[in-house]
Amino acid sequence: MTKNQNNQEWKSWIKALVIAVIITFLVRTFLFIPIAVEGPSMQPNLEDRDYVVINKLNYRISEPKRFDVVVFHASVDKDYIKRVIGLPGETVEYVDDVLYINGSPIEETHLVEELARLEEGERYTRDFSLEDIPGGHEVIPENHVLLLGDNRPNSTDSRNLGLIPYDELVGSASVIYWPINRIGIVK
Predict the structure, then answer these.
(1) Is 41 a known active-site residue?
(2) Of 179, 129, 182, 126, which is closest to residue 155 (Cα–Cα)?
(3) Full DSSP string of 11-80
(4) Phi/psi of residue 137, each to 5°?
(5) What distance in Å separates the CA atoms of residue 168 and residue 74, rounded to the nearest whole number?
(6) DSSP 1
(7) What is the pLDDT of residues 136-154, one digit of tens each?
(8) What does R_g of the chain's alpha carbons equal in angstroms?
């Protein structure tokens, strides 16, 4: 191999590496990122140390939907993962473990098993209304959502933090990719 051919090969490798780094940067910045679930607040649907793929593009082209699992900026250096319960323009209330949106009961299929395990008189979600959470809103304002963890007795969520503005949403959780025995679509 001549010196000129060797230089061409090195240039080709460097070019491929630079392109790979740029593509990785663009994908992570604008499309998808991996995150690790920390803590028990989303059990049983997401476990501590589950790794999930977050779709960052989703909320750039559409609005959150009820029961989406989302990642949001809870503080400058901390992101949380929770479930969308209330949407803009809605009233939200929990009474006796029933979610009411605008006065109508809504089934939370992601909690059916947890609610079935409760003993007589035991509650999974303490009663509250939108007015009870920080901010004291009567209706969820535009570009805000009410988020709750699936593990209602052990979750820091909108009941403590208040309503979350759209611009704090990082994206929606779509797939669990680790550990191997939990690979699947996020419920």
Answers:
(1) yes
(2) 126
(3) HHHHHHHHHHHHHHHHHHHHTEEEEE--SSTTTTTS-TT-EEEEESSHHHHS---TT-EEEEEEETTEEE
(4) -75, 150
(5) 8
(6) -
(7) 899 999 999 999 999 999 9
(8) 21
CB-neighbour burial class of residue 122 (10 A; exposed 0-12, middle 13-18, buried 19+)? exposed
Q: What angle do CA 108, 181, 24 make, to 5 degrees?
A: 90
Q: Does 62 qualify as catalytic in the annotation?
A: no
pTM value surpassing 0.85: no
Q: From the candidates 82, 155, 158, 172, which is the catalytic residue?
A: 82
* Residue ranges in the chain whose pLDDT is less than 50: none
List pLDDT tens digits, range 111-134.
988 888 888 888 899 999 999 999
**If 0-12 CB within 10 Å is exposed, 13-18 middle and 19+ buried, where does residue 9 land?**
exposed
Quick check: 34 and 52 in contact, CB under 8 A?
A: yes
Residues 6+ apart with CB under 8 A from 111: 124, 150
Is the Cα dihedral 156, 161, 163, 168 positive or negative?
negative
Question: Choosing from 41, 155, 158, 172, which is the catalytic residue?
Answer: 41
